């Protein structure tokens, strides 16, 4: 790359900073590829009419940020952005129990994201307590994300409340809408974190029967009448664990029941970014008077930022209770991770990471389908972080035990089960393994176990 000519004409930053920014931009946009040799410092200084010291300072800063690597006697080279830091390989038990996204995309961009945050004018706000609803810049980023990637038309910065990830958001939502001892309705098989939260806080979970399209509206009405519950928590897109996505008609039926029985809806929208084009509208837009949305960036961007957002109904009493909960549990949401996301939302990095995660998740979902065949339920979208294999509970427990003996960790089959009417099966999480090769080996091992056991018997839930 001896002919590389960076553009440093724009901006008012010091020249060395502009040179670093140009280098970063050319790496990000593909004009510089991993392994490309950069011009010697003296040659580049002559070409740009700069001092050697200025170019040297820029190279040192670029290396500090992880964009280049220098070798005495050989020169400076563009670093491999796909692996900016050493990452662990798939060692020990193969993790198919934790529902996380493939982490390579976020790891690829974290260094640049942090370097850009240090240039923000509002960075100093991160050292002080934030307002309970979060900093304005973080809420603006959250509203933009919910509107663009979740399709929520009513998401605005003045409505959004920052929280510390989706689990924290669910805890705040339940505390604002129910008291210990109250019954909260949910799908009969649900996200295990909801069970953990109910056990900890003393809520009574009542599982509602499901069919192939999701939660059954008639069963929901019966449960509401029989329990007097006033809260329903639901995962409408790629339901965890079954991967069912509610269609528009089923959402309308659920809303009709909720209005008839005065149910507040807690919409756990963790997987919305993976929905197919043309997916049905969110409950937050369909029933804004009674829906409290919980959404985060953990599944599509980076779980380690611990950042989520609440979108309550336009009800000041509920909003005040949410903010009181934030004060009680943590005083204020942390700002640094939120500022990283705010920067990523502004400069497009969040979209690049999410798009890469979606592409990789689609490839992994197709891989699982090709290996597991009819043993796997068809997901409610073309890509998913988890897939579902319906089978009787006894078979599920045997498969889980056999997998563990083969060093493959699966979600315990009883982990999602809330009620005896729940569909039973095994959830396989596809994002926890670093490499697709390791995932393929694990899936083939599981398929072999199914063949040895005679296959999965229950095909009732698709």
From TrEMBL:
InterPro entries: Aminotransferase_I/II_large (IPR004839), HTH_trans_reg/aminotransferase (IPR051446), PyrdxlP-dep_Trfase (IPR015424), PyrdxlP-dep_Trfase_major (IPR015421), PyrdxlP-dep_Trfase_small (IPR015422), Tscrpt_reg_HTH_GntR (IPR000524), WH-like_DNA-bd_sf (IPR036388), WH_DNA-bd_sf (IPR036390). This is PLP-dependent aminotransferase family protein. One of its GO terms (molecular function) is transaminase activity. It holds the Pfam family GntR. Residues 13-81 form the HTH gntR-type domain. Keywords: Aminotransferase, DNA-binding, Pyridoxal phosphate, Transcription, Transcription regulation, Transferase. It comes from the Bacteria. In the C-terminal section; belongs to the class-I pyridoxal-phosphate-dependent aminotransferase family.
């Amino acid at each position: 790359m001896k002919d590389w000519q960076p553009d440093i004409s724009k901006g008012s930053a010091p020249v060395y900073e502009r040179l670093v920014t140009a280098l970063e931009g050319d790496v990000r946009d593909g004009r510089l590829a991993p392994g490309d040799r950069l011009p010697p410092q003296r040659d580049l200084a002559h070409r740009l009419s700069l001092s050697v010291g200025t170019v040297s300072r820029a190279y040192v800063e670029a290396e500090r940020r992880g964009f280049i690597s220098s070798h005495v006697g050989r020169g400076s080279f563009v670093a491999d952005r796909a692996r900016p830091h050493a990452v662990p390989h798939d060692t020990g038990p193969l993790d198919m129990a934790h529902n996380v996204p493939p982490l390579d995309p976020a790891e690829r961009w974290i260094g640049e994201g942090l370097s850009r945050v240090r240039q923000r004018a509002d960075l100093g706000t991160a050292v002080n307590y934030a307002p309970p609803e979060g900093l304005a810049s973080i809420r603006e980023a959250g509203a933009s994300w919910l509107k663009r990637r979740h399709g929520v038309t009513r998401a605005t910065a003045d409505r959004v409340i920052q929280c510390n990830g989706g689990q924290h958001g669910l805890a705040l939502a339940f505390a604002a809408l129910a008291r210990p001892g109250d019954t909260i309705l949910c799908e009969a098989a649900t996200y295990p974190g909801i069970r953990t939260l109910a056990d900890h806080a003393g809520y009574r979970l009542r599982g509602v029967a499901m069919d192939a399209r999701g939660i059954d509206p008639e069963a929901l009405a019966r449960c509401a009448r029989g329990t007097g519950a006033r809260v329903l928590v639901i995962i409408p897109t790629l339901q965890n664990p079954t991967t069912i996505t509610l269609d528009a008609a089923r959402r309308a039926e659920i809303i009709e029941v909720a209005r008839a029985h005065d149910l507040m809806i807690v919409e756990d929208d963790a997987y919305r970014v993976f929905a197919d084009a043309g997916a049905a509208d969110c409950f937050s837009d369909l029933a804004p008077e009674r829906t409290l949305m919980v959404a985060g960036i953990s599944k599509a961007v980076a779980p380690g930022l611990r950042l989520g957002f609440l979108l309550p109904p336009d009800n000041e009493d509920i909003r005040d209770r949410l903010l009181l909960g934030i004060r009680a549990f943590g005083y204020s949401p942390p700002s640094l991770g939120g500022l990283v996301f705010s920067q990523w939302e502004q400069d497009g990095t969040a979209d690049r990471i999410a798009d890469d995660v979606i592409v990789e998740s689609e490839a992994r979902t197709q891989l699982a389908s090709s290996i597991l065949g009819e043993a796997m339920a068809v997901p409610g979208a073309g890509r998913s972080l988890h897939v579902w294999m319906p089978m009787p509970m006894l078979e599920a427990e045997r498969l889980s035990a056999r997998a563990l003996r083969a060093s493959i960790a699966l979600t315990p089959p009883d982990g999602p089960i809330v009620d005896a009417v729940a569909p039973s099966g095994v959830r396989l999480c596809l994002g926890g393994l670093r490499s697709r090769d390791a995932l393929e080996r694990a899936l083939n091992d599981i398929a072999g176990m199914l063949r040895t056991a005679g296959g999965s018997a229950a095909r009732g839930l698709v």
